[in-house]
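## Example pair
The file below holds two records. Each record gives the amino-acid sequence first, followed by its structure token line.
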Amino acid sequence: MYHLLKQIAKVGIVTEPAPHPDEALRALERRLGELILKHFGRSLAIRHVDAGSCNGCELEIHAMNGPHYNLERLGIKFVASPRHADMLLVTGPVSRNMEVALKRTWEATPDPKLVVAIGDCGCTGGIFGESYASCGRVSNVIPVDVAVPGCPPAPVAIMQGILTAYSIWNDLLLAAIWVLGLAGGIGVLRLQPWGRYLLELFCWALIVLAPLSAASRLYALQRPQPDSQPVNWLGAIAGVTLILIPILTICGATIATLRSPETLKAFSAN
């Protein structure tokens, strides 16, 4: 007992000091929380798949659930079944024994789904590469939306990867809508019947999405943020209204013009 107490007194406390507050992490958490609230209400379900890793990335993923990062308060939770998941978080090079299991997990995840490959092994195959025992990178087996390099990547990098996956999803959706409007406008200028339908569909998409986007932004203001000022609800509602009214008015006028007898006669004559 004496030797044990002597050793304790000699070595002292060897644990790491508590981390200092990180403003960059706080800003990242705020953006991630708002994005999850906008698309999924209040939760994001993630199914983690270990396709053959050394468990280094798993330690960082577990750290995200610790008190410092605390993903639960952002609405992010890990689920046991891919049928309940919105996103797959895949680690490690895909071993041959896990190839079929990973494909089945991806197929069981309901659409729309996102896939984030974690670590150098998941991004490039790492030191294992492709061999008789390894399929290499995750993208060799299933489609990958975002790859987060690192051996292992830090929890902040993994959170940034999740945020990037949603940003790509938003960008693709917005790009598809604007391409639809551009094609419809070109068709209308050339008096093509399909152009009238595409432009009207574009206007209806804006009429539906603009109020939903405004409502989600107002709803996100209800979430209290640390060190934040009280919400100016009058200014927020007035700003949203000033943006919505011109959009809805222009879209409504465009639809009415496209359905007018003069327009239909012009298209039919062509």
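Second record, same layout:
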Amino acid sequence: MTPKAKAWKACSRYCRLRDALAYCKEHGLDLHQFSRPEDIIGACCTCGAVKSWIWMDGGHYISRASQGLSGVYFDERNVNLQCKQCNGFKQGAAQEYRKFIIKKYGEDMPDELLQKHYILPDMKDLAMRATVRPPLPWLVKSHKTVTACKLRPTMLKGPEQRRYYSPGNRTGGVGKE
């Protein structure tokens, strides 16, 4: 896996869980009702669909450029919880996403993100910062109502078999990676 892919995986998981925890806090949901952190629900920033954060995407307000680089690709203000329908099939639902960014961060944020978009990042530096980011169990434990939640081990029977959860397989299953 390339440094950029590692950095994106960490950034996406962090931002999606951040938004799901904020949704639960906003609506007064007790996080102890979820048996695993993967079960915590969140709302899509563009259409408002409520689903488990693990089955949603980290959608970008400003996507990467033609060469795959953007100054805001890993900016946390540019990455928010978005359902796969809006992020994939509606190409990010740009108009609704812009309204969300203005509501959450203020009137000047779309212009600030657009200016930062043209400043190209150093990918090695971003990969190093992604590894310094707190791991998911720390993020979950940092919220006082979730101290009992712990991530379960994913290994099942052998090194090449893992438990996976996907929208097509909601009960979980064994598969080869």
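Notes on the second record: The chain has a mean pLDDT of 76. Strands lie at 41-43, 50-52, 57-60, 79-82, 161-166, 169-176.
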